[in-house]
Specification:
16% strand, alpha/beta, globular, Rossmann fold, 11 helices, 327 residues, seven-stranded parallel sheet
Length: 327
Amino acid sequence: MKVLVTGATGFVGGAVARALVNSGIDVRILARAGADIQNLQGLTVERVEGDLRDQASLRKSLIGCRQLYHVAAHYALWAKDPAIFYDVNVTGTKNLLEAAREVGTERIVYCSTIGAIGLPPGGGLGTEETPISLEQMAGHYKRSKYLAEQEVLKLAKAGLPVVIVNPSAPVGAGDVKPTPTGQVIVDFMKGRMPAYIETGMNIVDVDDVAAGHLLAMQKGRIGQRYILGNKNLMLREVFEILSRLTGVKAPTIKLPRLAIIPLAYLNQWIANLTGQPPRIPLEGVKMAKYKMHYDCSKAIRELGIPHTPPEVALEKAVKWFRTHGYV
């Protein structure tokens, strides 16, 4: 059986491609011309060129594939032209899934984000059923992924055989870009974290996220969402783990979020002028307001997602960043 994976040159998509190949599945990847494919070194995959904004290339890439893993997205906390988030994440997703419907793809897993899952207003753990609205989305990435997920849910109700997975904060080997979470780890390892803004996150091994994709393909219910996460931690706890792993001292100065917001706005203004990403992403500071802790029991109960300890996942990330010259 042949399957198509989008986003395989990235962090989560690369882990999904590796998991599929290791399971003996014939993998085709969709990648843009000139894409960096270092994350696929050593993997036997078929590569086809295409773009989520080019529907003809999508139909061509899907022919002969019984299943589709749509993992590709524009994942960043800033872009000089925010339109790219909507062109890739919303329109691109609609293009791909409509092409899949046209060619008769048998089953689809769509990778959304934990940011599209709500949090209880009075505190507590978010679940797949916790409501959220577009107005609650901080930043273009989260807004675009929320809108994309709404389109996927509409298509599922119309009969498209698609299951949605919502990874929390994946860490581990292969974070080539790196992702915003990976950048925090790199900055910590370089001693660039003299202080921090306290926030909460749910840490999960990227290999467990990949396994969750495969399990969702096998066992997931059509039109359902599954949080692919593991352990709820405060950022301070993440730094303490990283300190034990690296020997770098964890920051002890906790800054009030409201005091950083003016600096973040200034950083964004400079970034918009220079075209260089801001050192203090405004959207990251805004998101720090929320303790992003979730109940992951549905994916455990229905899919059987594995749960690697976050200490192990963070150790994988530290070793990979060191080996590949990020630090």
